[in-house]
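quick one, 265 residues, struct below
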Amino acid sequence: MDTSNWTTTHDLAVVYIALAYGTDHDLSDGELLVLTEALQAWKDLEEPAIQEIIVEAATLFVESDAEAEVRRAMKELRATLSPQERRDTVRYLIRIAEADGVLLEREQGFIHTLAEAWSLKQLSEELLKDTSAVVQRRGENWGLIHELAFLYILVAHSAGDELSSDTIDVVQERLQEWQPDLSGEEIQEVVRRALQVYADQPEESLIYDSVEALKEALPSTQRLTVLDDLHTVAQADGPLTRDERQLITSLAQAWDLNIRMNGHG
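---
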């Protein structure tokens, strides 16, 4: 790829994309919005021009040696940006990481690495400590689809019985509707990971993290859809039990939703 017209704005875009896309291979609308805002704060350009820079930086990130390009961009930016501009960049990185409501371990690691390279370790630690996002501690490949799977399994197993193949099928069907671009095998892998976490008998704090992550990331209409999914999953192997009913009701309350449990939400 020709980088002869490369600018500092492009280098900033590479670093922002490395965080937003490189850590989970997903660029959400929220992340893109903050990324665009961050670049416009640096260079007063019209949105189409900013979008073009983002596309060029993303192309370089995907088609080249991503790690080498990010290291190069970090080094260039350390030399080019003033101390205040470097601090502002770290603040925008935090905002991009927070945009989907969940701060992944890998995102935290990336921010720490950059902050150390720029002698801003203390600033990054303070900002991460004060984050408004749910801090995710289940590994770098754990995303919102895993949170959903974990919650579905939690409700399905609340009656205490073994999960039936019918229940697993319903869980996979509902997850597929959330991420239709994933293959059947990938959905099965999501369920397998969620089952692994569940089998480790997670502490209440981890269950709370899942509930909060989904509340932060999903609008109320989608949270209602999750409750509808939970209702369907719970009934996959028979009528709704008292424990299942109580769990779904308490989730609805945690998500500020009013539902009637004599039927769907």
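The mean pLDDT is 86.
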